């Protein structure tokens, strides 16, 4: 029995090694893409957190804005200037919420993170001042799919608030 390898045998071994190397490269690239995607998701989450934290901190540092937000969400009547100022704040929030919604739709933002912010968004727009701003300005400044999402979020928020009030009344 001849144990020497022919060129054909060496070529077959080379093809097997090449195929294994291609498979290993594809697996390596898939892992790298997955890690890159997770890194991108982390950046989105961090930027979102930073944006909302800055907005909240700006409001907390400014007694006029803090008072405005308190009065707006307690149902107090606001003057024209106050409504305009509130509109600027809400617009800033809603641009961020629209971005969150887009990131959520593409799978780049975790469902839990989106759901928490979705409730927060609805709580800002459900009170009379927020609802008035949304109906008179907000719905004209965003894409139709986001407007529909906001409508559903507000309905969900109001329903959950009614449920909570009913439970508390028992």
The low-pLDDT segments are none
Taken in chain order, the helices and strands follow as: HHHHHH
Instruction: Determine the number of helices (DSSP H or I, runs of at least 4 residues).
Output: 6
In percent terms, what proportion of residues is strand? under 5%
* Major sheet size, sense and barrel closure: none
Average residue pLDDT: 88
Structural class: mainly alpha
What does this structure look like?
The protein has helices at residues 7-61, 63-73, 80-105, 111-125, 128-136, 144-169. It has one domain (9-169). It is an all-alpha fold and 170 residues long. Helix 1 packs antiparallel against helix 3 and helix 3 (80-105) runs antiparallel to helix 4 (111-125). The chain contains six helices and no strands. It is elongated. Helix content is 84%, strand content 0%. The mean pLDDT is 88.
In short, what is this structure?
The chain is mostly helical and 170 residues long.
Helices, strands, pairings?
Elements: H1 7-61, H2 63-73, H3 80-105, H4 111-125, H5 128-136, H6 144-169
Question: How would you describe this structure in keywords?
Answer:
6 helices; 170 residues; mainly alpha; single chain
